[in-house]
């Protein structure tokens, strides 16, 4: 639900004499402002021209050689006991050989020790929060049409300052002395403590109109915010105060104007708490809103209202006003030349792909096949362009974070687990619609990359790989993309006789190939280097050479393998081996779904490196191992609570909304795609815990129970990752289609209320919550289709029937399978849904697997072969 701050909040904060004292020098009168509703906050953003944001320029500023005076740790601070790779980078002083950042600051982790020290010394806290890796561009991934706000003024370039501030300030002995003498300094890894980061980022956004990382906030000993910002240069420049000046002013205000400062911090928290409280005017959505929101969101993403006439016809006056105000939303529409939804820098945005596929299915079911096919073409073409572009790692598999240009060519080379899981599912969905093995091979490519490079010894799935690495073992500095890029000569030396074919296929040139867009390499960092991209289809290239396409593809696969083997000898990018529950949940889902959807691949399909071509059932084993790791290490069987992450042991942070929601979704996929009933039982347990721990009505939020977190901030945006609230709606729809009785009634009401809380968001800003639009529509469907399979789960026939049940794309379908000979299963269903148990008893045949398709309280006649089941599921709703 979109909420607005009372005008008194920003007015009172900015008019506070103490805050004005800090801000007067940092606000230039040349700024122009406009009002914007963004992330549930009404705020003011500085408007400045969009410029290209390129990570390599920042790396050039930030990288430096580490001259080692000694191999021993002369000084170790409290971060050495932490698990976060980011915090461990700051655990030692510059004489150590191991730290990435040579910080002189006496850092504390977030916790009572730091708070107690602040109270004992009677000094403020300085909080610095950022990511484990340097350049996630999280704001762009949320709203790609917005320029990044890094407190930029005339003469400044909007460069990402995360790493730069580490080097400029925290490695500066003078700055460190001020921090150590006047403050208690706390480091937070926002991936490990998103709840802490969210509170103070919300404060900075509300106060200044924008945010970003690094997040720099000053707090009172009782954790109330006093003043904050993002990047501060070390010294005064361009009319803005440097970090040292800010430190002196905060110290002076703390000593001389403490009462005013503390009151303003308390007032800020009070106003934020009031503004962010989630309330609903009724207990359920008004009629018609789910369908309206789905239609409006699909229009905005796909830009269906491309002509003024259609725009006038399909939007009501209020919606037109919103879209006119957010005219940049329509700048983020479908790109018919290069695919995707948005302009450069270009993000995959899987939640929008998911929305468009859901919209496609609704159009198809309503008989609008022409419109449905247009939507499908948009999605399919976008996924093709992404897979052929440099944002896809053609040699090792998987996808990089995003493309800096419009043609998906030159990426930011970081690889994130949450992208891999969501994109694998997107390619699986399009394969299930088209049966084109191009899409199944890309999904395998992603999953095989994860299996090879990102899975730990107990099946846990790691978080990310960094963008930069050394060009050689003795290199003094790291460079972005060094592990992934090639010179033309390197390719020739490795591949040999087929080098010309390979170079033509992947657009490899002696001068380098980062020339397809002026945004690809504006600073010539990649001069003479090549990022592999497929600009022509294999069949056309093979035909040009007079070669069978199968032979041509075999050669490409062999060449990729040779380059992969050579690449193994290069220094690898840093691996973030933190295990995050929510991200594992996304990956678990894709592995589980692949285990059955890929069984629809044509017999004899040939796979080429880096695709392994394993039996799809192996993917289910990966999903179950990852889930088992979480249950073993990050779940308390007594309290039924999750921990957020694991690295060398469970983290101190509790499980958050995303952890519960994404894991529940993954567990439901394990069950529906063939896993044992115990996974469903665990999903139900987690849903109960989420309901009474994270959803104290009426507040669906990102949450935990840490008393040091002053606000519980509602997540209401589907961005690089879906909102936990959106996923929760879909989870509740799926679960309530399986269970009955009091559990059904209670959680059905929870879903109704959750959607009601977001009613204004769905009406006014559907584009911000594409996945919730899908969830709202799913909830409104009168009766969800249920496929019930009855038989021995160990049989080949059962596997075939289960694959048939999932062969067609249908997000409004639930698959329930039950073996009546298993006492534990029967006891579960008799307790949770006696109708399912009765169906199993009445339809069990010892030598067959029986399938029934049920909807609107009516079931089809039983079928006992996969072909008949597929035919039954292909019927239109009216025919069925």
From TrEMBL:
Gene3D superfamilies: Glutaredoxin. SUPFAM superfamilies: Six-hairpin glycosidases, Thioredoxin-like. Transmembrane segments: none annotated. One of its GO terms (biological process) is carbohydrate metabolic process. Pfam families: Thioredox_DsbH. Residues 76-128, 153-271 form the Spermatogenesis-associated protein 20-like TRX domain. CDD domains: SSP411. InterPro entries: 6-hairpin_glycosidase_sf, Ssp411, Ssp411-like_TRX, Thioredoxin-like_sf. It comes from the Eukaryota. This is Spermatogenesis-associated protein 20.
